[in-house]
């Protein structure tokens, strides 16, 4: 028995229902596009705020520009995926959510690590990491495998849970 089999065997009842994962790949891509647009909008709103803070702090706050985009993106992920809905706004629109195989809720730290692993895998392996979902059980990506998480259809998951 491999480690993956152990994780899957300890998954809550109902994870073997294929309907939980129907259309998840497409919905995940759409959710990513919506979330990317929202983060860009949030960064655009934060830029003038940091500019004004820089004037008030005699330029010290302008140092935030170097980390503004990652700070906004990670805050957005922690707040949404780490919140009670377990999904970003794009994921909610697509009708999907992130869940853990051990049944525990996603906390803000797991949400941040999930995002950081996704971007690190993208930098190292290019966008071809998305192809992993074609060959893994439950359409999981590398960062899902590393954290014991998966993305499911929200309405079907709540009906099973």
From TrEMBL:
Keyword vocabulary terms for this entry: Cell membrane, Membrane, Transmembrane, Transmembrane helix
Transmembrane annotation, as ranges: 29-53, 60-79, 111-135
InterPro entries reported for this sequence: Pra-immunoreactive, RDD
Gene Ontology CC: one annotated term: plasma membrane
Protein's cellular compartments: Cell membrane
Signal peptide: none
Superkingdom, taxonomy of origin: Bacteria
UniProt membrane topology term: Multi-pass membrane protein
One Pfam family in the UniProt entry: RDD
Keyword Isomerase recorded: no
Ranges where the RDD domain occurs: 26-147
Record bears the keyword tRNA-binding: no
Protein name: RDD family protein
Organism: Oceaniradius stylonematis
């Amino acid at each position: 028995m491999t480690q993956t089999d152990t994780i899957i065997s300890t998954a809550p009842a109902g994870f073997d229902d294929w309907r939980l994962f129907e259309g998840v790949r497409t919905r995940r891509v759409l959710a990513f596009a919506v979330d990317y647009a929202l983060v860009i909008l949030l960064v655009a709103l934060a830029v003038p705020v940091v500019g004004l803070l820089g004037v008030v702090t005699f330029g010290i706050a302008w140092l935030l520009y170097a980390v503004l985009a990652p700070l906004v993106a990670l805050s957005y992920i922690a707040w949404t995926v780490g919140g009670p809905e377990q999904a970003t706004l794009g994921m909610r629109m697509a009708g999907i959510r992130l869940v853990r195989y051990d049944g525990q809720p996603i906390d803000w730290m797991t949400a941040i690590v999930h995002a950081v692993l996704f971007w690190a895998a993208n930098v190292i392996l290019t966008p071809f990491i998305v192809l992993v979902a074609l060959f893994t059980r439950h359409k999981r990506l590398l960062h899902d495998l590393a954290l014991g998480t998966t993305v499911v259809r929200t309405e079907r998951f709540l009906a099973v849970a």
